[in-house]
Amino acid sequence: MAFDDVIIIGSGIAALTVAERLAMDKNVIIFTKSNKTASNSFQAQGGVAAAVHPDDHWEDHLHDTLIAGCQHSDLENLQMLIQNGSRHLYELTRKGLEFDLNSDGDWNLGREGGHLKRRILHAGGDATGKALITFMLKRVKNKITIVEDEMVIDLIVQDQQCMGVTTKNTAGEVIDHYAGSTILATGGCGEIFSYTSNDSTVTGDGYAMAYRAGVQLTDMEFVQFHPTLLFDGKQALGLVSEAVRGEGAFLVNQDGHLIMDGVHELKDLAPRDIVARAIFNERNAYLNISNVKNFSSRFPTIHKMCVDNGIDVGTNLLPITPGAHFMIGGIKADRLGQTSLGGLYAVGETACTGVHGANRIASNSLLEGIVFGNMTAEAILSQKNRTTKQGSYYVKKRSITMDLPTKETIKRKMMRNVGVVRNEHGLEGMKAWLEQYDFSHIDLSRLSVEKIEVVNMLTTAWLITTSALMRKESRGTHFRSDYPESSGLETREEILRLKEIKLLV
Ligand code: SIN
Protein backbone atom coordinates (compact mmCIF):
# COMPACT_ATOMS: atom_id res chain seq x y z
CA MET A 1 0.00 0.00 0.00
CA ALA A 2 1.37 3.41 -0.95
CA PHE A 3 0.26 7.04 -0.81
CA ASP A 4 0.97 9.85 -3.29
CA ASP A 5 -0.35 13.38 -3.74
CA VAL A 6 -1.36 12.72 -7.32
CA ILE A 7 -1.80 9.55 -9.35
CA ILE A 8 -1.97 9.96 -13.14
CA ILE A 9 -3.05 7.07 -15.34
CA GLY A 10 -1.58 7.32 -18.84
CA SER A 11 1.49 8.90 -20.40
CA GLY A 12 0.22 10.93 -23.36
CA ILE A 13 0.34 14.70 -23.74
CA ALA A 14 -2.46 15.43 -21.25
CA ALA A 15 -0.84 13.23 -18.57
CA LEU A 16 2.63 14.70 -19.07
CA THR A 17 1.35 18.28 -19.14
CA VAL A 18 -0.33 17.85 -15.76
CA ALA A 19 2.72 16.03 -14.39
CA GLU A 20 5.15 18.70 -15.56
CA ARG A 21 3.11 21.48 -14.00
CA LEU A 22 2.74 19.67 -10.66
CA ALA A 23 6.21 18.20 -10.43
CA MET A 24 7.74 20.98 -8.31
CA ASP A 25 5.02 21.00 -5.67
CA LYS A 26 3.50 17.54 -5.56
CA ASN A 27 4.53 13.97 -5.28
CA VAL A 28 3.32 12.64 -8.66
CA ILE A 29 3.21 9.05 -9.88
CA ILE A 30 2.26 8.00 -13.41
CA PHE A 31 1.04 4.46 -14.12
CA THR A 32 1.14 3.17 -17.66
CA LYS A 33 0.22 -0.39 -18.57
CA SER A 34 2.85 -0.61 -21.31
CA ASN A 35 5.85 1.64 -21.90
CA LYS A 36 5.72 5.41 -21.55
CA THR A 37 5.78 6.14 -25.28
CA ALA A 38 2.91 3.78 -26.12
CA SER A 39 0.23 6.42 -26.68
CA ASN A 40 -1.77 8.09 -29.43
CA SER A 41 -0.06 11.37 -28.55
CA PHE A 42 3.34 9.88 -29.39
CA GLN A 43 2.02 8.74 -32.77
CA ALA A 44 0.33 12.04 -33.66
CA GLN A 45 1.44 13.14 -37.11
CA GLY A 46 -0.54 16.25 -38.00
CA GLY A 47 0.30 18.78 -35.36
CA VAL A 48 -1.17 21.41 -33.11
CA ALA A 49 -3.65 24.00 -34.36
CA ALA A 50 -3.33 27.62 -33.21
CA ALA A 51 -3.97 31.04 -34.70
CA VAL A 52 -0.34 32.21 -34.57
CA HIS A 53 -0.04 33.75 -38.05
CA PRO A 54 -0.49 37.56 -38.19
CA ASP A 55 -3.37 37.10 -40.68
CA ASP A 56 -5.14 34.66 -38.41
CA HIS A 57 -7.20 35.27 -35.27
CA TRP A 58 -8.38 33.01 -32.48
CA GLU A 59 -11.97 33.81 -33.48
CA ASP A 60 -11.34 32.34 -36.94
CA HIS A 61 -9.99 29.18 -35.35
CA LEU A 62 -13.04 29.08 -33.11
CA HIS A 63 -15.40 29.55 -36.09
CA ASP A 64 -13.88 26.64 -37.99
CA THR A 65 -13.96 24.39 -34.90
CA LEU A 66 -17.57 25.28 -34.25
CA ILE A 67 -18.61 24.52 -37.83
CA ALA A 68 -16.83 21.15 -37.81
CA GLY A 69 -18.49 20.36 -34.45
CA CYS A 70 -22.01 20.49 -35.98
CA GLN A 71 -23.67 22.67 -33.38
CA HIS A 72 -22.89 20.39 -30.50
CA SER A 73 -19.97 22.23 -28.89
CA ASP A 74 -19.73 23.67 -25.39
CA LEU A 75 -19.00 27.22 -26.43
CA GLU A 76 -17.49 28.46 -23.17
CA ASN A 77 -15.05 25.55 -22.87
CA LEU A 78 -14.22 25.83 -26.56
CA GLN A 79 -13.46 29.53 -26.26
CA MET A 80 -11.23 28.74 -23.27
CA LEU A 81 -9.36 26.15 -25.34
CA ILE A 82 -8.83 28.29 -28.40
CA GLN A 83 -8.03 31.57 -26.64
CA ASN A 84 -5.42 29.95 -24.42
CA GLY A 85 -3.87 27.66 -27.03
CA SER A 86 -1.29 30.02 -28.56
CA ARG A 87 -0.10 31.21 -25.13
CA HIS A 88 0.73 27.65 -24.09
CA LEU A 89 2.48 26.91 -27.38
CA TYR A 90 4.64 30.03 -27.02
CA GLU A 91 5.44 28.90 -23.48
CA LEU A 92 6.49 25.45 -24.71
CA THR A 93 8.74 26.95 -27.38
CA ARG A 94 10.29 29.26 -24.76
CA LYS A 95 11.10 26.11 -22.78
CA GLY A 96 12.84 24.67 -25.86
CA LEU A 97 10.28 22.78 -27.95
CA GLU A 98 11.03 23.25 -31.66
CA PHE A 99 8.33 23.29 -34.33
CA ASP A 100 9.28 23.07 -38.02
CA LEU A 101 10.25 26.37 -39.68
CA ASN A 102 9.95 27.56 -43.29
CA SER A 103 12.80 29.04 -45.32
CA ASP A 104 12.10 32.50 -43.81
CA GLY A 105 12.60 31.09 -40.30
CA ASP A 106 8.90 31.40 -39.43
CA TRP A 107 6.73 28.53 -38.27
CA ASN A 108 5.87 26.40 -41.28
CA LEU A 109 2.11 26.30 -40.88
CA GLY A 110 0.14 23.46 -42.49
CA ARG A 111 -3.53 23.10 -43.35
CA GLU A 112 -5.87 20.27 -42.44
CA GLY A 113 -9.55 19.39 -42.79
CA GLY A 114 -12.10 21.99 -41.70
CA HIS A 115 -9.56 24.80 -41.23
CA LEU A 116 -10.00 27.69 -43.63
CA LYS A 117 -6.47 28.92 -42.90
CA ARG A 118 -3.00 27.45 -42.51
CA ARG A 119 -2.60 27.18 -38.74
CA ILE A 120 -1.12 23.74 -37.96
CA LEU A 121 2.28 23.72 -36.27
CA HIS A 122 4.22 20.52 -36.75
CA ALA A 123 7.57 19.01 -35.80
CA GLY A 124 9.81 16.49 -37.55
CA GLY A 125 7.55 16.84 -40.64
CA ASP A 126 4.89 14.35 -39.61
CA ALA A 127 6.27 13.34 -36.20
CA THR A 128 4.81 16.09 -34.05
CA GLY A 129 3.62 13.79 -31.27
CA LYS A 130 6.99 12.08 -31.00
CA ALA A 131 8.77 15.44 -30.69
CA LEU A 132 6.30 16.73 -28.12
CA ILE A 133 6.27 13.60 -25.93
CA THR A 134 10.05 13.22 -26.06
CA PHE A 135 10.35 16.86 -24.98
CA MET A 136 7.85 16.47 -22.12
CA LEU A 137 9.46 13.23 -20.89
CA LYS A 138 12.77 15.11 -20.63
CA ARG A 139 11.03 17.88 -18.67
CA VAL A 140 9.65 15.49 -16.03
CA LYS A 141 12.69 13.20 -15.82
CA ASN A 142 13.76 12.60 -12.19
CA LYS A 143 10.97 14.89 -10.96
CA ILE A 144 8.12 12.40 -10.95
CA THR A 145 7.82 8.61 -10.79
CA ILE A 146 6.77 6.75 -13.93
CA VAL A 147 5.74 3.13 -13.39
CA GLU A 148 5.62 1.18 -16.65
CA ASP A 149 4.01 -2.23 -17.27
CA GLU A 150 1.59 -1.87 -14.37
CA MET A 151 -2.07 -1.66 -15.35
CA VAL A 152 -4.60 0.29 -13.34
CA ILE A 153 -7.60 -2.01 -13.19
CA ASP A 154 -10.03 -0.01 -11.04
CA LEU A 155 -10.63 3.16 -9.08
CA ILE A 156 -10.92 2.96 -5.30
CA VAL A 157 -14.08 4.79 -4.23
CA GLN A 158 -15.53 5.58 -0.84
CA ASP A 159 -18.22 8.06 0.22
CA GLN A 160 -18.41 9.55 -3.29
CA GLN A 161 -14.67 10.21 -3.31
CA CYS A 162 -11.95 8.63 -5.41
CA MET A 163 -9.23 7.48 -3.02
CA GLY A 164 -6.79 6.04 -5.55
CA VAL A 165 -6.42 3.03 -7.79
CA THR A 166 -5.90 -0.71 -7.80
CA THR A 167 -3.19 -1.97 -10.15
CA LYS A 168 -1.96 -5.27 -11.47
CA ASN A 169 1.74 -5.70 -12.18
CA THR A 170 3.54 -8.09 -14.49
CA ALA A 171 4.01 -10.58 -11.64
CA GLY A 172 0.20 -10.69 -11.37
CA GLU A 173 0.13 -8.92 -7.98
CA VAL A 174 -2.89 -6.73 -7.25
CA ILE A 175 -1.86 -3.58 -5.34
CA ASP A 176 -3.82 -0.63 -3.90
CA HIS A 177 -2.33 2.87 -4.28
CA TYR A 178 -3.88 5.85 -2.50
CA ALA A 179 -3.75 9.52 -3.51
CA GLY A 180 -5.28 12.90 -2.77
CA SER A 181 -6.09 13.36 -6.47
CA THR A 182 -6.45 10.76 -9.21
CA ILE A 183 -6.31 11.74 -12.88
CA LEU A 184 -7.57 9.61 -15.76
CA ALA A 185 -5.57 10.42 -18.89
CA THR A 186 -5.99 7.04 -20.53
CA GLY A 187 -6.76 8.23 -24.09
CA GLY A 188 -9.53 6.84 -26.26
CA CYS A 189 -10.67 3.44 -27.52
CA GLY A 190 -9.66 3.04 -31.20
CA GLU A 191 -8.63 -0.56 -30.56
CA ILE A 192 -12.23 -1.70 -30.24
CA PHE A 193 -12.58 -1.30 -34.04
CA SER A 194 -10.78 -3.46 -36.57
CA TYR A 195 -9.51 -0.48 -38.57
CA THR A 196 -7.84 2.11 -36.36
CA SER A 197 -5.00 4.61 -36.31
CA ASN A 198 -4.58 4.10 -32.55
CA ASP A 199 -1.77 2.54 -30.56
CA SER A 200 -2.60 -1.09 -29.75
CA THR A 201 -2.78 -0.25 -26.02
CA VAL A 202 -5.77 2.09 -26.49
CA THR A 203 -8.58 -0.20 -25.34
CA GLY A 204 -11.02 2.17 -23.61
CA ASP A 205 -9.72 1.41 -20.10
CA GLY A 206 -10.52 4.85 -18.66
CA TYR A 207 -14.16 4.78 -19.79
CA ALA A 208 -14.67 1.27 -18.42
CA MET A 209 -13.09 2.08 -15.05
CA ALA A 210 -15.14 5.25 -14.76
CA TYR A 211 -18.33 3.38 -15.63
CA ARG A 212 -17.64 0.69 -13.02
CA ALA A 213 -17.12 3.44 -10.43
CA GLY A 214 -20.42 5.15 -11.30
CA VAL A 215 -18.77 8.21 -12.86
CA GLN A 216 -20.78 10.15 -15.46
CA LEU A 217 -19.89 9.67 -19.13
CA THR A 218 -21.34 11.57 -22.08
CA ASP A 219 -21.53 11.71 -25.90
CA MET A 220 -20.14 8.19 -26.31
CA GLU A 221 -21.84 7.79 -29.71
CA PHE A 222 -19.42 10.29 -31.24
CA VAL A 223 -16.43 8.24 -32.44
CA GLN A 224 -14.35 9.94 -35.10
CA PHE A 225 -13.28 7.85 -38.09
CA HIS A 226 -10.25 9.27 -39.85
CA PRO A 227 -10.74 9.16 -43.63
CA THR A 228 -7.26 8.03 -44.61
CA LEU A 229 -5.61 5.01 -43.04
CA LEU A 230 -3.15 3.22 -45.32
CA PHE A 231 -4.83 -0.03 -46.38
CA ASP A 232 -3.51 -3.26 -47.90
CA GLY A 233 -6.96 -4.63 -48.74
CA LYS A 234 -7.17 -6.57 -45.47
CA GLN A 235 -5.87 -4.42 -42.66
CA ALA A 236 -5.25 -0.78 -41.85
CA LEU A 237 -1.51 -0.12 -41.68
CA GLY A 238 -1.41 3.31 -40.03
CA LEU A 239 -2.45 6.92 -40.43
CA VAL A 240 -1.88 9.03 -43.53
CA SER A 241 -2.16 12.50 -42.06
CA GLU A 242 -4.72 14.99 -43.27
CA ALA A 243 -1.74 17.31 -43.66
CA VAL A 244 -0.94 15.37 -46.86
CA ARG A 245 -4.22 16.65 -48.31
CA GLY A 246 -3.28 20.06 -46.90
CA GLU A 247 -0.24 19.95 -49.21
CA GLY A 248 -2.33 19.14 -52.30
CA ALA A 249 -3.17 15.40 -52.23
CA PHE A 250 -6.70 14.45 -53.32
CA LEU A 251 -8.99 11.44 -53.08
CA VAL A 252 -9.91 9.31 -56.09
CA ASN A 253 -11.74 6.03 -56.60
CA GLN A 254 -10.68 3.03 -58.72
CA ASP A 255 -11.84 4.85 -61.90
CA GLY A 256 -9.83 7.98 -61.07
CA HIS A 257 -13.03 9.89 -60.26
CA LEU A 258 -12.53 12.74 -57.73
CA ILE A 259 -14.36 11.48 -54.63
CA MET A 260 -14.94 14.86 -52.97
CA ASP A 261 -16.13 16.66 -56.12
CA GLY A 262 -19.61 18.03 -55.47
CA VAL A 263 -19.69 16.67 -51.90
CA HIS A 264 -18.54 19.75 -49.95
CA GLU A 265 -17.24 23.23 -50.75
CA LEU A 266 -13.92 22.47 -49.01
CA LYS A 267 -13.56 19.31 -51.14
CA ASP A 268 -10.67 17.14 -49.84
CA LEU A 269 -10.25 19.41 -46.83
CA ALA A 270 -13.87 19.15 -45.72
CA PRO A 271 -14.41 18.15 -42.07
CA ARG A 272 -13.37 14.56 -41.39
CA ASP A 273 -16.82 13.03 -40.87
CA ILE A 274 -17.90 14.17 -44.35
CA VAL A 275 -14.76 12.88 -46.06
CA ALA A 276 -14.89 9.55 -44.17
CA ARG A 277 -18.50 8.93 -45.27
CA ALA A 278 -17.73 9.83 -48.89
CA ILE A 279 -14.91 7.24 -48.89
CA PHE A 280 -17.08 4.66 -47.11
CA ASN A 281 -19.46 4.77 -50.09
CA GLU A 282 -16.69 3.88 -52.57
CA ARG A 283 -15.52 0.37 -53.45
CA ASN A 284 -11.85 1.39 -53.43
CA ALA A 285 -10.30 4.71 -52.51
CA TYR A 286 -6.84 6.17 -53.04
CA LEU A 287 -4.98 9.27 -52.02
CA ASN A 288 -3.36 10.78 -55.09
CA ILE A 289 -0.13 12.44 -53.91
CA SER A 290 1.16 13.63 -57.29
CA ASN A 291 0.77 17.32 -56.27
CA VAL A 292 2.64 16.96 -52.97
CA LYS A 293 6.11 18.48 -53.17
CA ASN A 294 8.96 16.58 -51.48
CA PHE A 295 6.63 13.90 -50.12
CA SER A 296 9.41 11.78 -48.58
CA SER A 297 11.06 14.66 -46.68
CA ARG A 298 7.88 16.50 -45.67
CA PHE A 299 6.20 13.26 -44.53
CA PRO A 300 9.05 10.92 -43.54
CA THR A 301 6.97 8.77 -41.16
CA ILE A 302 4.26 8.12 -43.75
CA HIS A 303 6.82 7.54 -46.50
CA LYS A 304 8.59 4.94 -44.33
CA MET A 305 5.28 3.26 -43.48
CA CYS A 306 4.53 2.90 -47.21
CA VAL A 307 7.99 1.52 -47.97
CA ASP A 308 7.89 -0.90 -45.00
CA ASN A 309 4.55 -2.26 -46.20
CA GLY A 310 5.47 -2.59 -49.85
CA ILE A 311 3.22 0.26 -51.04
CA ASP A 312 4.85 1.78 -54.13
CA VAL A 313 4.91 5.56 -53.53
CA GLY A 314 6.13 5.99 -57.13
CA THR A 315 2.60 5.26 -58.42
CA ASN A 316 1.43 8.39 -56.50
CA LEU A 317 -1.64 6.42 -55.38
CA LEU A 318 -1.87 5.37 -51.72
CA PRO A 319 -4.72 2.88 -51.01
CA ILE A 320 -6.72 4.09 -48.01
CA THR A 321 -9.73 3.30 -45.84
CA PRO A 322 -11.45 5.11 -42.95
CA GLY A 323 -10.73 3.88 -39.41
CA ALA A 324 -11.42 4.74 -35.78
CA HIS A 325 -9.22 7.65 -34.76
CA PHE A 326 -10.55 9.70 -31.86
CA MET A 327 -13.23 9.37 -29.17
CA ILE A 328 -15.10 12.66 -28.95
CA GLY A 329 -17.30 11.66 -26.02
CA GLY A 330 -15.95 10.40 -22.74
CA ILE A 331 -15.87 11.06 -19.02
CA LYS A 332 -17.83 14.23 -18.40
CA ALA A 333 -15.42 16.84 -17.05
CA ASP A 334 -15.43 20.56 -16.56
CA ARG A 335 -12.62 22.75 -17.86
CA LEU A 336 -10.65 22.04 -14.66
CA GLY A 337 -10.89 18.31 -15.33
CA GLN A 338 -13.27 17.69 -12.42
CA THR A 339 -15.52 14.68 -13.00
CA SER A 340 -18.76 13.76 -11.23
CA LEU A 341 -16.69 11.93 -8.59
CA GLY A 342 -14.80 13.90 -5.94
CA GLY A 343 -11.02 13.54 -6.16
CA LEU A 344 -11.22 12.18 -9.72
CA TYR A 345 -10.14 14.24 -12.74
CA ALA A 346 -10.20 13.38 -16.43
CA VAL A 347 -8.16 15.15 -19.10
CA GLY A 348 -7.32 14.76 -22.78
CA GLU A 349 -9.13 12.34 -25.08
CA THR A 350 -10.60 10.35 -22.21
CA ALA A 351 -12.45 13.45 -20.96
CA CYS A 352 -15.42 15.10 -22.63
CA THR A 353 -15.53 18.84 -22.03
CA GLY A 354 -17.69 19.39 -25.12
CA VAL A 355 -15.02 21.30 -27.05
CA HIS A 356 -15.14 19.02 -30.09
CA GLY A 357 -18.90 19.08 -30.53
CA ALA A 358 -19.99 16.13 -32.64
CA ASN A 359 -16.85 16.07 -34.81
CA ARG A 360 -13.34 17.13 -33.81
CA ILE A 361 -11.56 19.44 -36.21
CA ALA A 362 -8.01 18.46 -37.12
CA SER A 363 -5.12 19.07 -34.71
CA ASN A 364 -7.20 20.31 -31.79
CA SER A 365 -6.49 17.19 -29.70
CA LEU A 366 -2.86 17.79 -28.70
CA LEU A 367 -4.00 21.35 -28.05
CA GLU A 368 -6.75 20.05 -25.75
CA GLY A 369 -4.24 17.96 -23.78
CA ILE A 370 -1.92 20.94 -23.37
CA VAL A 371 -4.52 23.59 -22.44
CA PHE A 372 -6.77 21.49 -20.20
CA GLY A 373 -3.76 19.65 -18.77
CA ASN A 374 -2.47 23.00 -17.50
CA MET A 375 -5.87 23.99 -16.15
CA THR A 376 -6.31 20.69 -14.31
CA ALA A 377 -2.87 21.05 -12.75
CA GLU A 378 -3.67 24.59 -11.64
CA ALA A 379 -6.94 23.39 -10.08
CA ILE A 380 -5.06 20.73 -8.12
CA LEU A 381 -2.40 23.21 -7.02
CA SER A 382 -5.01 25.62 -5.73
CA GLN A 383 -6.63 22.98 -3.49
CA LYS A 384 -5.72 22.43 0.11
CA ASN A 385 -3.71 19.22 0.45
CA ARG A 386 -6.11 16.32 0.57
CA THR A 387 -5.04 13.36 2.58
CA THR A 388 -6.72 10.04 2.72
CA LYS A 389 -6.49 7.32 5.30
CA GLN A 390 -5.03 4.12 4.00
CA GLY A 391 -6.73 0.78 4.23
CA SER A 392 -10.17 -0.72 4.64
CA TYR A 393 -11.81 1.05 1.73
CA TYR A 394 -14.81 -0.49 0.14
CA VAL A 395 -14.08 -1.73 -3.36
CA LYS A 396 -17.09 -3.20 -5.10
CA LYS A 397 -16.57 -6.95 -4.92
CA ARG A 398 -17.13 -8.84 -8.11
CA SER A 399 -17.15 -12.58 -8.18
CA ILE A 400 -18.19 -13.73 -11.62
CA THR A 401 -15.85 -15.61 -13.95
CA MET A 402 -16.81 -16.35 -17.56
CA ASP A 403 -15.51 -17.13 -21.02
CA LEU A 404 -14.71 -13.96 -22.91
CA PRO A 405 -14.63 -13.28 -26.67
CA THR A 406 -11.38 -12.50 -28.47
CA LYS A 407 -10.35 -8.91 -29.15
CA GLU A 408 -10.57 -9.62 -32.90
CA THR A 409 -14.23 -10.66 -32.61
CA ILE A 410 -15.16 -7.46 -30.74
CA LYS A 411 -13.25 -5.33 -33.24
CA ARG A 412 -14.82 -6.95 -36.30
CA LYS A 413 -18.35 -6.70 -34.93
CA MET A 414 -17.92 -3.08 -33.82
CA MET A 415 -16.52 -2.04 -37.21
CA ARG A 416 -19.43 -3.66 -39.01
CA ASN A 417 -22.27 -2.54 -36.73
CA VAL A 418 -21.11 0.64 -35.00
CA GLY A 419 -18.73 2.02 -37.63
CA VAL A 420 -18.89 4.96 -40.06
CA VAL A 421 -22.56 4.29 -40.92
CA ARG A 422 -24.98 2.83 -38.34
CA ASN A 423 -28.61 1.71 -38.20
CA GLU A 424 -31.03 0.38 -35.62
CA HIS A 425 -30.81 -3.24 -36.78
CA GLY A 426 -27.02 -3.40 -36.53
CA LEU A 427 -26.92 -1.49 -33.24
CA GLU A 428 -29.62 -3.66 -31.61
CA GLY A 429 -27.80 -6.81 -32.74
CA MET A 430 -24.50 -5.51 -31.35
CA LYS A 431 -26.10 -4.54 -28.04
CA ALA A 432 -27.66 -8.00 -27.64
CA TRP A 433 -24.35 -9.69 -28.44
CA LEU A 434 -22.46 -7.53 -25.90
CA GLU A 435 -25.07 -8.09 -23.19
CA GLN A 436 -24.51 -11.84 -23.15
CA TYR A 437 -21.31 -10.97 -21.26
CA ASP A 438 -21.86 -9.76 -17.70
CA PHE A 439 -18.83 -7.47 -17.98
CA SER A 440 -19.80 -5.27 -14.99
CA HIS A 441 -19.56 -8.11 -12.49
CA ILE A 442 -16.46 -9.99 -13.60
CA ASP A 443 -13.74 -10.37 -10.97
CA LEU A 444 -10.87 -8.52 -12.66
CA SER A 445 -8.27 -9.38 -10.06
CA ARG A 446 -8.16 -12.96 -11.31
CA LEU A 447 -7.75 -12.06 -14.98
CA SER A 448 -4.64 -11.48 -17.07
CA VAL A 449 -3.98 -7.94 -18.34
CA GLU A 450 -5.06 -9.10 -21.83
CA LYS A 451 -8.40 -10.35 -20.46
CA ILE A 452 -8.95 -7.17 -18.41
CA GLU A 453 -8.51 -5.25 -21.66
CA VAL A 454 -11.18 -7.46 -23.24
CA VAL A 455 -13.57 -6.61 -20.37
CA ASN A 456 -12.80 -2.92 -20.85
CA MET A 457 -13.35 -3.22 -24.61
CA LEU A 458 -16.73 -4.92 -24.06
CA THR A 459 -17.75 -2.21 -21.58
CA THR A 460 -16.71 0.65 -23.86
CA ALA A 461 -18.29 -1.01 -26.89
CA TRP A 462 -21.54 -1.28 -24.94
CA LEU A 463 -21.40 2.39 -23.91
CA ILE A 464 -20.89 3.46 -27.53
CA THR A 465 -23.54 1.12 -28.92
CA THR A 466 -26.27 2.05 -26.44
CA SER A 467 -25.52 5.78 -26.88
CA ALA A 468 -25.64 5.38 -30.67
CA LEU A 469 -29.01 3.66 -30.38
CA MET A 470 -30.39 6.50 -28.30
CA ARG A 471 -29.38 9.29 -30.70
CA LYS A 472 -32.04 9.03 -33.38
CA GLU A 473 -30.52 11.58 -35.78
CA SER A 474 -27.31 12.02 -37.73
CA ARG A 475 -24.86 14.57 -36.42
CA GLY A 476 -21.14 14.91 -37.09
CA THR A 477 -19.38 11.59 -36.63
CA HIS A 478 -22.60 9.78 -35.67
CA PHE A 479 -24.37 8.86 -38.92
CA ARG A 480 -27.56 6.75 -38.87
CA SER A 481 -28.70 5.55 -42.29
CA ASP A 482 -32.19 5.14 -40.78
CA TYR A 483 -32.15 8.77 -39.52
CA PRO A 484 -30.01 10.54 -42.12
CA GLU A 485 -31.23 14.02 -41.19
CA SER A 486 -29.84 16.17 -38.38
CA SER A 487 -32.20 18.07 -36.18
CA GLY A 488 -31.62 21.76 -35.38
CA LEU A 489 -29.57 24.45 -37.07
CA GLU A 490 -27.11 23.20 -39.63
CA THR A 491 -25.76 25.74 -42.07
CA ARG A 492 -22.49 27.55 -41.56
CA GLU A 493 -24.36 30.88 -41.43
CA GLU A 494 -26.77 29.62 -38.78
CA ILE A 495 -24.00 28.27 -36.59
CA LEU A 496 -22.03 31.49 -36.88
CA ARG A 497 -25.09 33.52 -35.95
CA LEU A 498 -25.39 31.39 -32.83
CA LYS A 499 -21.74 32.10 -32.07
CA GLU A 500 -22.24 35.85 -32.35
CA ILE A 501 -24.99 35.73 -29.77
CA LYS A 502 -23.05 33.75 -27.22
CA LEU A 503 -19.39 34.69 -27.55
CA LEU A 504 -17.93 35.72 -24.22
CA VAL A 505 -15.56 38.51 -25.28
C1 SIN B 1 -3.88 13.83 -38.92
O1 SIN B 1 -2.67 14.07 -38.94
O2 SIN B 1 -4.55 13.70 -39.94
C2 SIN B 1 -4.55 13.66 -37.60
C3 SIN B 1 -4.46 14.87 -36.80
C4 SIN B 1 -5.54 14.90 -35.77
O3 SIN B 1 -6.02 13.87 -35.34
O4 SIN B 1 -5.99 15.99 -35.44
Describe this structure as you would to a colleague.
This protein has helices spanning 13-22, 40-43, 58-68, 75-95, 128-140, 205-212, 242-246, 272-280, 295-298, 300-308, 365-381, 407-417, 424-435, 449-470, 492-502, and strands at 2-9, 28-31, 48-49, 120-121, 145-147, 151-158, 161-168, 174-184, 217-218, 223-231, 236-239, 250-253, 285-288, 317-327, 330-332, 344-346, 351-352. The radius of gyration is 22 Å and the shape is globular. The termini are far apart. Strands 1, 2, 5, 6, 7, 8 and 16 form a seven-stranded mixed sheet that branches. It has a five-stranded antiparallel sheet with strand order 11-10-14-13-12. Strands 9-15-17 form a three-stranded mixed sheet, covered by helices on one side. With 505 residues, it is of the alpha/beta class. The chain binds succinic acid. Residues 45-46, 241-243, 326, 362-363, 365 line the site of succinic acid.
Summarize the structure.
The chain is built from 15 helices and 17 strands.
Give structural attributes.
single chain; 505 residues; alpha/beta; seven-stranded mixed β-sheet; five-stranded antiparallel β-sheet; 15 helices; globular; binds succinic acid
Question: Per DSSP, what share of the residues sits in E-state strands of 2 or more residues?
Answer: 15-25%
Structural class: alpha/beta
The Rg value, from CA coordinates, equals 22 Å
Inertia-based shape: globular
Q: What is the helix content?
A: 25-40%
- On the 0 to 100 scale, the average pLDDT is 93
The tally of strands reads 17
Which ions and ligands are bound to the chains?
succinic acid
Low-confidence runs: 501-505
Helix run count: 15
C-alpha termini separation:
49 Å
Largest sheet: 7 strands, mixed
